[in-house]
Amino acid sequence: MEYLLLGISAILINNIILTRFLGICPLLGVSRKNSSAIGMGLAVIFVVTMSAILSYSLFMYVLNPLGIGYLRLVSFILIIASFVQFVEMFLKRYVPGLYKSLGIYLPLITTNCVVLAVSLDVVGITGGVADYNFLSMLIYSFFTAVGYAFILVVFSYIQERLITDRNTPKSFKGSGVALITLGLLVMAFMGFKGMI
Amino acid sequence: MKKHKIFTDGIFANNAAFMLFLGMCPMLATTKDFMSALGMGIAVLATLILTNTAISAIRKWVPNEIRIPILIVIIATIVSVIEMFMQAYMFDLSQTLGVYLSLIVVNCIILGRAEAFAMKNNVFDSFLDALGTGVGFLAGLAVLAIAREFIATGGLAFSSLLTGQKLWSFQIIPTAYTIPIFSDAPGAFIMFGLLVGLVNFIIMKAADHKKKKAALVAAGGQ
Hints:
The structure holds 2 protein chains of 2 kinds. Chain A is mainly α. Chain A contains 10 helices and 2 strands. Chain A has one domain (21-192). In chain A, helix 4 (34-66) runs antiparallel to helix 9. In chain A, 41% of the residues are buried. By secondary structure, chain B is mostly helical. Chain B has 9 helices and 2 strands; from the N terminus they run H-H-H-H-H-H-H-H-E-E-H. The chains are: A mainly alpha, B mainly alpha.
């Protein structure tokens, strides 16, 4: 039950885009087209979960016991960058179909703040006790990424209509109206607050 | 390129916040009130100056094929240093900024300037470019934060960046008429959207004006 609540809260209540503003650049850029939003969403889910596992293991079993926790930023960004590179090469060689649909979004993910933010979240330590155990870390990172992908896809449907809409004032075309629409979306999602 | 043009380009023509839309996550997250926006802006400015000058200084020894990992490691190291510095000397501010301080690493502005400018220009030019871009970003943050705080609380409050002590505040709009949602997430998006629209509007008007003027000059010349 605890894990179920953790998942639901990561998707709906504490959605990483809507409450913490992370990963907005790809949201405005990529989700102009529905198909690319889905591709990006899947790539993010995969990379976020895997890099959370890798950075959690590295921090809990290597950096923290050795007392060099302050190196986490440098090591996590290296892990993420090399993991993304590795996945790209692997997919290119063995799963060309998937590579074609995800390929162009993979390099973009390295600079997506969601990946690094989730990795930093899961290694939080309060009062000498780790905030997440391995299982809850897995659930948290997976569902946070699912929540991200969910908003990417939902917003891509809205963006497709915004682009063709003729009533938008000229100066608000593009990012202006997209940001205001996002604001309204956030307001709708605030209704989930207090559900748990 | 002239020195002062390098500096002013970063503030106006290539303003990271309103023209290029880079670094939007901290832009929205840390502009709840003016003081945290100022702290974030200064942190980004300091990071930019340090990374740009450092990368420009070593640019001749960096092999082109593996430049991105090298740049990222340099940036991550400098951000770690700044983060630890702020935890030591500006504890309250570092608590308010939280994870966004670490996330400066993946801020597109930093890597963007390193890749586009510092790798190709000398140390002093890179320093100027970093200063201009950083000040431009700081100004963008400040404008958004002032607009949000003013509407959400009816005034502005200033406190010391080092200790977090309240220094001075004023209020113009009575609390009954403020719109508190502007200090929450929806208000951030809406206010940023409105400001982007406003900036575009001004640019379009200016372009129109220029065109008319040019047409007048052309007509007068005939």
